[in-house]
Design a protein that fits this description.
It is built from 6 helices and 8 strands. With 249 residues, it is an alpha+beta fold. The radius of gyration is 19 Å and the shape is globular.
């Protein structure tokens, strides 16, 4: 039988897993000014595939301000709104603010971040126009999520990309973040060369989980962790609603 101390450590670990936005997830996060990623968007955006395409999604995301648990913790928690899927949402019931977003699967070649990663084993420091940054060779499929923005400005960037390139999955794309908080600005631009070679990437794109299913599964996993933590710890904690900076990630 585990000791009281061991049970307390287990509870803390499970809570930290929930509080980590990227825990066991496939999302790629842009957390600081200057962060960027070079990638190939998986869905083509073709109207002919609209009824069957599950790798491009518009949805609502709840955002909540909480007390940070570590220096690396932004203090924001993000939840998928399930209201449009099954007609119920615990975060809507709590009155947590939500934001309209869109997401897509992408094959990420590499990424650069400004802040030092917690584990630098797979990262390399490189010189960039913005100064020294950390670069990681990802070479794997990840989910990119962006806000629609004021007057749908970021969604319109995606539309313009489709118009200019003939399809979303033709040219490599760079997604970038500048600024912070309500001053955050997102970039979505085509990299003309090289063109995306899907035969070199492989057939993994056809096996990707649909985004609705992915977000629903992740939400259920988070809820299970919360319920376990409540069972192990005093359940007197009061998480109050916070203000959304308008640019969750």
């Amino acid at each position: 039988m585990p000791s009281l101390e061991q049970i307390g450590q287990n509870a803390k670990q499970r809570r930290e897993e929930f509080e980590s936005n990227s825990s066991q997830g496939r999302e790629l996060f842009f957390t600081a000014d200057g962060d960027l990623a070079n990638l190939a968007i998986v869905p083509s955006g073709s109207p002919e595939e609209a009824d069957t395409e599950t790798r491009l999604l518009d949805y609502h995301q709840h955002s909540e301000r909480v007390t940070p648990t570590s220096p690396q913790d932004s203090g924001w928690r993000f939840y998928f709104c399930t209201l449009a899927v099954n007609g119920t949402c615990t975060h809507c019931d709590r009155g947590v603010k939500k934001q309209y977003r869109f997401a897509f699967w992408a094959y990420v070649y590499n990424r650069r971040i400004k802040n030092t990663p917690q584990n630098t084993d797979n990262w390399e420091q490189v010189k960039a126009p913005a100064g020294l940054m950390w670069e990681q060779q990802v070479n794997d499929f990840r989910i990119i999520s962006l806000p629609f923005g004021k007057s749908d400005m970021y969604w319109n960037l995606l539309l313009q990309l489709s118009y200019n390139e003939g399809a979303l999955n033709t040219s490599a794309v760079q997604v970038s973040r500048t600024g912070k908080g309500t001053d955050t600005v997102w970039g979505l631009t085509a990299v003309k060369k090289p063109l995306v070679d899907w035969s070199e990437i492989g057939e993994g794109a056809d096996e990707l989980e649909g985004l609705n299913d992915y977000f629903m599964r992740r939400e259920a996993e988070k809820q299970a962790i919360v319920e376990d933590s409540v069972n192990l710890e005093d359940d007197e904690e009061d998480i109050t609603d916070g203000e959304d900076d308008g640019f969750g990630f």
